Amino acid sequence: MMPRMSKKPLGELVENRIVVWSIEESRRLFNGGFYGKPMGVSKPKGSDFDAPLILDLIEGYYLAKIGGIAIYRGKMERRISLRVMEKICDREYTDFKEKFLVYKKLREANYVVTPGIKFGCDFAVYEHGPGIDHAPYLVQVVKPDENITATGIVLSGRLATTVRKQFILAMTEAEKEKVNFLSFEWWRA
Questions:
Q1: Mean of the pLDDT values across residues 166-176?
Q2: Which of 93, 103, 111, 126 is catalytic?
């Protein structure tokens, strides 16, 4: 293992995830913004866990971009630059730039953002964090030229209502670094 050069937590790129092997650094990252998920812990209660932290690529790229983590490949032998990390993310995610922009805007607004795959959307968004509150928002990222059907909106809205969450479309203009959020409220007659 490479000697420590900085105080940044170290993450190893493993396939399409980033693993923070240090338990102490894992706890610090999780406690400092609910980044990632402890390996093998389905619903962590605070930072009292003894497991490495798994970050998805968007979280890891965001943390690397703000200077919160250094990402390596191959047992910490080769540091991955932001440029290379962005290429990896772009290859792994459809519409990565748009999704990253939404993730960044929500994080900058002090929301906790987690993958929304289990809800069939891009992100689940918390006001306080997992284990503290339930995610009140489900966010789907769309580009301005993307076709959205009424059926698609109704399906997403019904799912969100079923799990007691608000469905939000995040419409992006990546080149302008602009995001417009459109929320839907469902009324019963």
A1: 86
A2: 126
Predicted confidence at residue 3, as pLDDT, reads 41
Q: CA-to-CA distance for 149 and 68, rounded, in angstroms?
A: 39
Contact 66, 60 (CB under 8 A): no
Whether 165 sits among the annotated catalytic residues: the reply is: yes
Tokens of 54: 């798994």
Ordered domains of the chain (ranges, CATH): 6-93 (3.40.1170.20), 111-189 (3.40.1350.10)
> Do residues 55 and 20 touch, judged by C-beta distance below 8 A?
yes
Three-class SS state of 150: helix
176 is catalytic: no
105 is catalytic: no
Query: Has residue 33 got a pLDDT over 80?
Result: yes
Q: 52: how many CB neighbours lie within 10 A of its CB?
A: 18
Q: Give the tens place of pLDDT for each residue, 118-162.
A: 888 899 999 988 877 888 899 999 988 888 777 777 777 777 767
Active-site residue identified among 45, 75, 87, 134: 134
